[in-house]
């Protein structure tokens, strides 16, 4: 399988060990508080890959493992009377989903939605092809419903193995990507439409590999005109770094007949622009796009990753690298999307940093040039290590996020952190 082979080359699996406690550390320009540590006893989940979603005064996320069946969980963390409390909303069993790697999203009624990489009723090597799930709050408990089971190439080329989260359009339809499946087994963009108490799936686009892209791993975004934008970690025109292609940045535009047209806005890997973008994009108020590439930034065969910008002028998209991770201690190999906050500053997570435990980096535009600085470096195992998900910033400038491993007491299965500036 095309995407399966690619995924085996670059999948983000990390190991180590944790406990539940409150722990504060001061480092660099921010103060870290570990507001939850995922323990060795599986019950509350283990190894969160994705970032957090804020809703109604709490933070929500997923863990890829843990729970009674070690199939992952959906959790919430909330500050109650000055103490942070974690609650498992749902633990997956396998048949209803397994290994959720995405963030969650809420509808207006307070139901949350997400994806699982494995599980469900599809075969896909007997582990399931992945699911889209809904969790609904009922009298203080949460009820899970699988609203779609992916079947891969054997059940209609509907896609398989989603790692990205979902987004809503204005009318309540859900959109997402699968890393595999589709007509060429190179991944899909799909739409889920509510109909009579169930959901109907439509594949909007089947990736073919080279040159249009393959293995879309990150979230999609909409522009104001209803076009979708995203990245593929493989495929494209060049394969200097990855034999399956160095990835693309794409746009999907809706047509009057209901079909969608894909346009490759930029193919990575031609030079020092980066390769293998695993995360989705964000847009600034002017419509410029920002993203990260896992590799590249030096020569076509070298470099430790990039943060890039795509700007539209006279109908032409132009890519420029705004950081190639050459600052000492500034991190490397970014796997998550960046965020924008305060006067156009860009924040993100990366591997490396001092001690190689991971770093939150900051990019600032000063006199027309971007300056890369390490905003916070995770100092040791107690503070959490290996942040993979995007950070989340509140109105006060505090950053919230997760790490895959590390934590106080060293159950070492990841933490939820807060960084106060």
Quick rundown:
The chain is mostly beta strands and 421 residues long. It has one domain (2-420): Neuraminidase (6 Propeller).
Describe what you observe in this structure:
The chain is mainly β and 421 residues long. It has one helix spanning 2-10; strands spanning 23-27, 30-37, 53-55, 58-63, 73-80, 83-91, 105-106, 112-116, 131-138, 141-149, 167-168, 174-178, 188-195, 198-206, 221-222, 228-232, 248-254, 260-267, 282-283, 289-293, 306-313, 316-323, 339-341, 345-350, 359-366, 369-377, 392-393, 399-403, 415-420. The chain has a single domain (2-420), classed as TolB, C-terminal domain (Neuraminidase, 6 Propeller), CATH 2.120.10.30. Helices cover 2% and strands 41% of the residues. The strands form seven sheets. It has a five-stranded antiparallel β-sheet with strand order 1-2-29-28-27, with no helix packed on it. Strand 11 and strand 12 form a beta hairpin. The chain is globular, with a radius of gyration of 20 Å. 52% of the residues are buried.
């Amino acid at each position: 399988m095309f995407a399966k082979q690619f995924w085996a080359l670059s999948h983000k699996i990390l190991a180590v060990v944790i406990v539940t406690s409150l722990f504060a550390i001061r480092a660099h320009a921010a103060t870290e508080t570990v507001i939850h540590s995922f323990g060795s006893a599986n019950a509350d989940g283990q190894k969160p890959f994705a970032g957090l979603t804020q809703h109604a005064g709490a933070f929500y996320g997923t863990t890829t493992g843990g729970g009674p069946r070690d199939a992952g969980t959906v959790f919430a963390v909330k500050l109650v009377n000055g103490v942070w409390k974690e609650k498992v909303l749902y633990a997956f069993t396998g048949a209803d989903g397994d290994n959720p790697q995405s963030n969650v999203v809420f509808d207006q009624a307070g139901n949350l939605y997400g994806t699982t990489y494995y599980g469900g009723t599809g075969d896909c090597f007997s582990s399931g092809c992945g699911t889209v799930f809904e969790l609904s709050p009922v009298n203080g408990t949460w009820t899970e419903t699988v609203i779609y089971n992916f079947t891969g190439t054997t059940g209609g080329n509907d896609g398989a193995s989603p790692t990205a989260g979902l987004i809503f359009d204005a009318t309540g339809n859900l959109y997402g990507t699968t890393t595999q499946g589709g007509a060429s087994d190179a991944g899909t963009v799909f739409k889920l439409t509510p109909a009579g108490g169930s959901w109907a799936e439509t594949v909007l686009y089947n990736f073919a590999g080279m040159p249009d892209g393959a293995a879309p791993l990150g979230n999609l975004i909409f522009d104001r005109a209803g076009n979708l934008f995203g990245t593929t970690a493989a495929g494209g025109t060049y394969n200097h770094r990855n034999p399956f292609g160095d990835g693309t940045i794409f746009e999907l535009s809706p047509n009057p007949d209901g079909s969608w047209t894909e346009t490759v806005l930029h193919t990575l890997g031609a030079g020092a622009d980066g390769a293998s973008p695993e995360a989705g994009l964000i847009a600034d108020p002017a419509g410029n796009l920002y993203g990260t590439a896992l590799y590249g930034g030096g020569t076509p065969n070298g470099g430790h990753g990039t943060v890039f910008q795509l700007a539209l002028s006279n109908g032409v998209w132009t890519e420029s690298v705004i950081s190639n991770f050459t600052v000492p201690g500034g991190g490397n190999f970014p796997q998550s999307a960046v965020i924008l906050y305060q006067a156009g500053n860009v924040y993100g997570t990366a591997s490396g940093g001092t001690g190689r435990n991971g770093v939150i980096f900051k990019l600032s535009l000063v006199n027309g040039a971007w300056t890369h600085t390490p905003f916070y470096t995770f100092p040791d195992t107690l503070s959490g290590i290996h942040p993979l998900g995007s950070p989340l910033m509140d109105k006060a400038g505090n950053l919230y996020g997760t790490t895959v491993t590390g934590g106080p007491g060293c159950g070492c299965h990841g933490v939820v952190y807060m960084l106060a500036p």
